[in-house]
Design goal:
It contains ten helices and ten strands. It is α+β, with helices and mostly antiparallel strands. It folds into two domains: about 20-145, no CATH class; about 205-300, no CATH class. The strands form five sheets. It has a two-stranded antiparallel sheet. α2 crosses α3 (about 115-125). The longest helix has 11 residues, at about 240-250. The radius of gyration is 27 Å and the shape is extended.
Amino acid sequence: KRGLPHVHIILWLKKTGALTADEVDKFISAQLPDPSVDPIGFDAVSAFMIHGPCGEGHPSCACMVNGECSKNYPKEYCEKTTILQNGHVRYARPKNRISTKKNGVAVDNAFVVLHNVDLCVKYQAHINVERVSRDGMEKYLFKYFTKGFDCSKVGLQRKRASGESSTCTKGVNEIQDYLECRCIAPNDAAWRLLQFEIHHTNPSVERLPVHLPLGNSVVYNEDDSLEQVLQNPWNQITKLTAWFEANKTYPEAVCYTYAEFPEHFTWHADGKYWDYRRGTGNVGRLANVGPNQGDSYYLRMLL
């Protein structure tokens, strides 16, 4: 938020089924390593992966909002990692005797940020590693491009009558102005001046529409004749309807689901058809459909 270099990365693992609790423990930890077994890992986690300390004894910590930590620290203790029914993970945070100090305050596993010990040791940096579900992770990936304060301030002031003295009707909150500003550091400024990429997606993500028959979206100009738009057969062809046709045309197509199709076939928007892919595959992402949309929701579940 202050121009410091950082990156958000989402990795899809090529595997069947979701990660089990034991597999999660192989990659992600929410506890301090045992200093008698892994002193290097203990030092790295203590230096880079401890939150706060915050709480009742530290009300001035940056994460404190209305007397509570906005990041929900300290976390609850948990003896083993479990996968909850909603897909979220409750990580192992045993209440053992292992602790460290940050800013002179003793902290234990309740303040440890999720991490991978090997990455933390290798890069000697704060690297938060989490197992995420599909819902909402794209929003998290791009959140810093939508939450910032690239903005202008406009003020309205009543015109003074002749001879009337100027008065200030509202004081300036310098602290709030500082928190809401965006500080451009030299490295951030240079990156933008040189017009380097701000974000990059590889492989590309292809959005796949989900709709009932004749329920697809149609884009047209305001000057177009509405009757001609409705009668145009091209407006009835979408990626979904073309996918049904491709399953009739290509024998191999039946081996892939709708979401897997962009990995093996290319969508030609000019002719509105799918054809064999000759390069790197895309990642298919079905459009979101809410449960209140009835049959469209169940069609998405089937797809």
